[in-house]
Amino acid sequence: AQSVAQPEDQVNVAEGNPLTVKCTYSVSGNPYLFWYVQYPNRGLQFLLKYITGDNLVKGSYGFEAEFNKSQTSFHLKKPSALVSDSALYFCAVGAGNMLTFGGGTRLMVKP
Amino acid sequence: NAGVTQTPKFRVLKTGQSMTLLCAQDMNHEYMYWYRQDPGMGLRLIHYSVGEGTTAKGEVPDGYNVSRLKKQNFLLGLESAAPSQTSVYFCASRRLAIWGTADYEQYFGPGTRLTVT
Q1: Which of A26, A50, B13, B35 is the most buried (most CB within 10 A)?
Q2: How does residue B63 score in pLDDT terms, banded at 50, 70 and 90?
Q3: CA atoms within 13 A of residue B53's CA, in its CB half-sphere
């Protein structure tokens, strides 16, 4: 069975600084990896996905993610954080008919 | 397009009461899902459906039932609510993946916050 780990419950970063939200996964076969964001009292919104190809995937709102097969990681990054990026971020792995989600990481960007 | 909608947005139940949560999507998606979200546990899959008239169990199906009588609707039922079912419930849908792709992207509704006392 597949699994996803997000080792940090919360990440704090100052506005303008780069940010990284970590994700590692376990799945048999090719990994299909996703990042979603959740703003308060809202549903999840798709940010980006890795299916195949380039290890650096670009997504919405200036986010990107780096796929590393040897480390089984799919870390979310952004070169310059905004206060409005503060939200809950979920990594997920797809297999069969389902997505399996990590526990989520709360990103706090301070002015 | 409204996307994925959920009703109600909030509900308070007493232990032992029953209720049905309704999810509707207007994107003609084949697949639909019900998740529950609890602090620190991410989203856990309750039940899902791969098409009209079909349902399957997810990770945490106990205490819930579902039905997919119409393609655009997916109902989640609690027959006898328990405090452990206090949670935020999300519905999601996705299209049928084209062979050779991994089109797993799911579209989420705004959620239903359920409290069982």
Answers
A1: B35
A2: very high
A3: 0
Q: A1: nearest CA in chain B?
A: B59
Cβ–Cβ gap A46/B105 under 8 Å: yes
pLDDT digits (tens, 9 = 90+) for A37-58: 999 888 899 999 998 888 999 9
Q: How far is CA A51 from CA A29, A76, B1, B100, in A?
A: 12, 15, 27, 10
Q: Is the peptide bond before B8 cis (omega within 30 degrees of 0)?
A: yes
Cβ neighbours of residue B74 closer than 8 Å, sequence gap 6 or more: B23, B25, B32, B33, B34, B49, B66, B67, B68, B91, B93
Of A13-17, A58-62, A91-95, B101-105, least confident by mean pLDDT is: B101-105
- Chain A residue nearest residue B89, CA to CA: A43
